[in-house]
Amino acid sequence: MTVQHEALAQYLKVALGGVVQVQAFRPLTGDESTFAMQEPGVLRGSDLKAFGYGQPIQIDLLLNGIPRSYVLSTMRRGPGFGHDHMADRAGSLIWAHAAYGKLARHVGSLDVGFFTDEGQLQSAGRAKEYFLLVEKVDGAVYRVDLERIRTEGKATASDFDRARALSGYLAKIHAEKGQDVQLYFRRIRDLIGHGEGIMGILDGYPAGYLPLPSQQQYLIESGCMAWRHYLKEKAERLSIVHGDFHPWNILFREGTDFTLLDRSRGEWGEPADDIAALSINYLFFSLLRSGQMEGPFRELFDLFYGEYLERTHDLELNSVIPPFYVFRALVIASPRWYPDLPEQVRVKLFRFAKAMLQVEQFDHKDLNRYLM
Q1: Quick count: other Cβ atoms within 10 Å of Cβ 209?
Q2: DSSP states of 156-172 as a string?
Q3: Are 118 and 110 in contact (CB under 8 A)?
């Protein structure tokens, strides 16, 4: 979809309710830091995550003479991942507009709208495609910290402070519980069967993919069914969640000041989802660095996970988190989402995912046992 300057200015005048002078708009590329690798040429470009949503556009303007910046984002069209139809994408963006402002520290949404056949942007009416207008916030994504730690082989006091802050944040939002049993059932069902869940991710793997052939994919999906019925007995755990709490969705500024991006998959869910989403990245970056869980990433994992347990006294967490680790491992091992991973890292992530299906109680103090 091509955005015309005149159409954009006309829309913003209505959406922002003032005198608007658009000064510039351009693709939002984020930070340009390079992902340093020990093996030259394994990763190319500035980011591991090669497959994502639509390209966001940064808009710089004067609103009643005051400089402001905004971000206009869309969702990538299908196939797959539950984004196949316009209604799928519209539903996600409409939900995002309603939910973003309800979560502490999350970037706010100012409007949700759509593109018409004529290329106009409107906030209501004959929809052709939806977009999301959100606040522009400063900061660097948390994965930049993890890249630095991987390169330098050590974590600073600030790194531990940030891990502690993220753990404390999740403990705080997860303290708000819900009473909707069917909603908890849906969240567990979506974990497995949604287009962005385990089955949807596996459907995105290439046909005949040798590192994880169809028979092993079948066993993973079959194993998830037992977890689904086990978790259906845990509906009292329904809590406020972020839903996609990984390092690409966390922007840090000075110290422990951070803002979240891209809240996903519902306001309510299983707290283990947020814990798994972030903590598996300490394992991931440690595998990239040395092939096992050790050193600074082990220390950060222990701090993040341990502080959460200490704050929440969640005695069930280790017994419910395994299928969420399965999901996250399959995402970061995906040849479509992360096409340039070293093969030995991908293999260990598959081992980790398959091991999670077999355990009754996750041992957060010994992750290396699940990589063998």
Answers
A1: 15
A2: -HHHHHHHHHHHHHHHH
A3: no
Who contacts 331 (Cβ-Cβ below 8 Å, separation ≥6)? 201, 337
Same domain for 316 and 202: yes
Q: Clarify whether residues 212 and 251 are in a common domain.
A: yes
Q: In this model, does residue 346 exceed pLDDT 50?
A: yes
Residues 312, 251 share a domain: yes
Which range of residues forms the domain containing residue 112? 5-135
Cβ atoms of residues 86 and 74 within 8 Å = no
Q: What region does 260 belong to: left with phi over 0, alpha with psi -120 to 50, or beta?
A: beta
pLDDT, tens only, 211-238? 999 999 999 999 999 999 999 999 999 9
Of 95, 115, 135, which marks where a domain is finished? 135
70 φ, ψ (degrees, to nearest 5): -135, 165
Return the H-helix or E-strand segment holding 27: strand 20-27
- For 143-153, write each residue's pLDDT tens digit: 999 999 999 99
Least confident piece of the model among 85-99, 165-179, 337-351: 85-99
The alpha-carbon radius of gyration of the chain (Å, integer) is 21
CA-nearest of 79, 352, 114, 105 to 249 is: 105
Does the pTM surpass 0.85? The reply is no
Which amino acid is present at 86?
Answer: M
43, 65: one domain: yes
pLDDT digits (tens, 9 = 90+) for 110-119: 999 998 888 8
Q: What's the Cα-to-Cα distance from 32 to each of 7, 10, 23, 253, rounded to whole Å?
A: 30, 32, 23, 16
